[in-house]
């Protein structure tokens, strides 16, 4: 897992042909806005969340965010434990996001 600043997260993702954006917030949080193209998997879903992670392609790169960066950091650690080596946490999360977003 790597914690990346927004600039590093975006620039690395733009160069990554295997990039997938993963939003680990609740549905309520997502309804307030999200990064375009993000897949939502709520980390609060416990075993269901882990089951969904196990379905992901371990060869892809996952750019993960939550509201503040804490849950996405946990998600990246879980992903690493499940064999997904390329998981990148957005420092500061969606609260500090200044890029494009959808509501």
Can you describe this structure in just a few lines?
The chain has 103 residues and is α/β, with parallel strands linked by helices.
Indicate how many domains the architecture comprises: 1
Given the structure, what is the number of helices? 4
The H-and-E topology, N to C, reads as EHEHEHEHE
Please give the radius of gyration in angstroms: 12 Å
Distance between the termini: 28 Å
In the CATH scheme, the class would be: Alpha Beta
Tally of DSSP β-strands? 5
Tell me, rounded to a whole number, the average pLDDT: 96
What share of residues are in beta strands? 15-25%
Could you say what the CATH architecture is?
3-Layer(aba) Sandwich
Structural class, from secondary structure content?
alpha/beta
Biggest pleated-sheet summary: 5 strands, parallel
Across the major sheet, the strand order is: 1-5-4-2-3
Query: What characteristic shape results from the CA principal axes?
Result: globular
Question: CATH-wise, what's the superfamily?
Answer: Rhodanese-like domain
């Amino acid at each position: 897992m790597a914690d990346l600043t927004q600039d590093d997260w975006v620039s690395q993702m733009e160069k990554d042909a295997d990039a997938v954006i993963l939003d680990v917030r609740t549905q309520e949080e997502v309804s307030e806005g999200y990064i375009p193209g993000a897949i939502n998997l709520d980390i609060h879903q416990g075993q269901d969340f882990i089951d969904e992670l196990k379905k992901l392609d371990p060869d892809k790169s996952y750019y993960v965010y939550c509201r503040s960066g804490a849950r996405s950091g946990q998600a990246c650690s879980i992903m690493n434990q499940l064999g997904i080596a390329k998981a990148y946490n957005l420092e500061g999360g969606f609260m500090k996001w200044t890029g494009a977003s959808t509501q």
